Amino acid sequence: MLTVTDITVSIQGTTVLKDASLSVAAGQTCGLIGRNGAGKTTLMRAIMGALPFTGQGIFFRDHDLAEAKAHNRAEFGIGYLPEDRRLVPHFTVEENIMVPLWAAKSEDRARVKWVYDLMPEIGRFADRRAMTLSGGQQKLVALARSLVAGHQLLLLDEPFEGVAPALAQRLMEVVADLKSENLSVLVSDSDYTHSKRLVDKVYTIERGQVTIAPHSKAA
Predict the structure, then answer these.
(1) 177: how many CB neighbours lie within 10 A of its CB?
(2) Which candidate among 50, 84, 126, 135 keeps its CA 20 to 30 Å from the CA of 57?
(3) Where are the domains of the chain?
């Protein structure tokens, strides 16, 4: 499904990722565990086309992501939840959720309905502006937005960071429910507290270098 092979990313002359590799199979949930500053967000942003990289490449199914525009990820079925949510404050919740469909020039709202069925609480405040929501609610909206695009692959960057325990539990429930949808998921976290109950395979990242954890359930 997703294959990252020996990529290196430098930002302002500093190497942040060095020869990083990982893979996520169809229907598999993988964890990317590392401390703040280890390179988790950099790797996610490189996959999403927000940062240039060198190395063998990043491939999603039969797509060479180095050759694709950033907005093509939505067309490919890749959804992304950034660590800082990146909602448009003056848009309503539903307008924020619709952004990937607009990027893909799609009028198909079936996926939006599916998201509302999966996360009924989102539908209850669909008409509210994003800036009126709590930080935890905004995380749920950002997850909903990623799900609208991500019918093949989800990249979830620190989804549990800075969220109250009750909302973190809700986020975990939603991610766990995705296993029945055969989605591929890459979820980053600073430790195993939340993700250990969700993942099939675990990668660790330290100083920009990625290794597979020996206790992963699947290779």
Answers:
(1) 12
(2) 84
(3) 2-212
Q: Which CATH architecture has domain 2-212?
A: 3-Layer(aba) Sandwich (3.40)
Give per-residue pLDDT as tens, 154-190.
999 998 887 788 888 888 888 888 878 889 999 999 8
The position carrying tokens 């405040």 is 125
**For position 75, what pLDDT does the model report?**
87
Where does residue 13 rank: exposed (0-12), middle (13-18), buried (19+ CB within 10 A)?
exposed
Which residues of the chain form beta strands (DSSP E)?
2-11, 14-24, 29-33, 54-60, 63-64, 78-81, 153-157, 184-189, 201-206, 209-212
Instruction: Pick from 4-13, 155-164, 197-206 the range whose average pLDDT is largest.
Output: 4-13
Query: Is residue 13 within 8 Å of residue 175, measured between CB atoms?
Result: no
